[in-house]
Design a protein that fits this description.
With 241 residues, the chain is an alpha+beta fold. The protein has two domains: 186 residues, Bira Bifunctional Protein, Domain 2 (BirA Bifunctional Protein, domain 2, 2-Layer Sandwich), CATH 3.30.930; 43 residues, SH3 type barrels. The protein is 27% helix and 31% strand. The strands form two sheets. Strands 1-2-3-7-6-5-4 form a seven-stranded mixed beta sheet, sandwiched between helices. A hairpin with a 2-residue loop joins β5 and β6. α2 packs across α4 and α2 packs across α5. It is globular, with a radius of gyration of 17 Å. The protein starts with a strand and ends with a strand.
């Protein structure tokens, strides 16, 4: 069983940035949780709305295996889905590469960042919408919270503990032992992107095709209309459910 330490804050600019400060002090197996974030961010440096009522958390790790940190995003997503089911009895799904959603609306985003130097660290950020009643205009149509779906308030601490405990089980049993195949297998049972028609927006272009699967680097295999299968390493996808 992994031992970890939780630090709680009322408000932070970003749990990811605070975790990087902690890494500078040589800390690991450390969890940072805050009530609100003033400069929360998602992938590609996008602003992440982090008002009171959500779970804003970063897990600071010092893994031996630094080559495949994208699997830590997959582990986090699995833990979020399993914990939501356990605590709210709600079935949610994973959208490649880093979202947990309910009927196409975003509940949770995950941001994994490596800190490389004389010692290597990884920070896994999890932003989960739990008890918010409303969202800003620009994300109102695409975001949702557990409270909005279930019409009840949930214990944020309990959900956080469930996610963290699940995370360290998968991290210890599979990631630390290099068994990424098992992580991928579990992840696929919760992911509903595969075999759907999708539009992928990368930094350079927009592509349409069918999501055929995930390769061992966690990239999406996209089959284009001409039958060619290409590998998408990063991008945003719109899934037609």
């Amino acid at each position: 069983m992994h031992h970890y330490k939780i630090y709680r804050f009322k408000s932070l600019a970003s749990t990811q940035d605070k975790a990087k400060e902690f890494a500078g002090k040589g800390l690991s197996n450390t969890i940072l949780i805050t009530g609100t974030q003033t400069k929360g961010r998602g992938r590609f440096g996008r602003k992440w709305f982090s008002a009171k009522g959500g779970l804003w958390m970063s897990i600071l790790l010092k893994p031996k295996n630094i080559e495949k940190i994208q699997y830590l995003t997959f582990i986090a997503a699995i833990c979020v889905v399993k914990s939501i089911k356990k605590i709210s009895n709600l079935k949610t799904n994973i959208k490649w590469p880093n979202d947990v959603h309910y009927k196409g609306k975003k509940l949770c985003g995950i941001l994994t960042e490596g800190i490389f130097g004389s010692e290597n660290f990884v920070v896994v950020g999890i932003g989960l919408n739990i008890n918010q009643n409303h969202f800003p205009e620009e994300i109102k149509k695409t975001a949702v919270s557990l409270k909005i779906i279930k019409n009840q308030t949930f214990d944020i601490k309990k959900l956080a503990k469930s996610i963290i405990d699940e995370f360290f089980v998968l991290y210890g049993n599979y990631y630390s032992r290099g068994n990424t195949g098992k992580i991928l297998k579990i992840w696929k049972t919760y992911c509903d992107t595969i075999s759907k028609n999708v539009t992928v927006i990368t930094r350079f272009k927009k592509l349409t095709g069918r999501a055929m699967g995930i390769d061992k680097d966690c990239s999406l295999l996209l089959k284009l209309k001409n039958g060619k299968v290409i590998k998408i390493v990063e991008g945003d996808i719109n899934v037609r459910y």
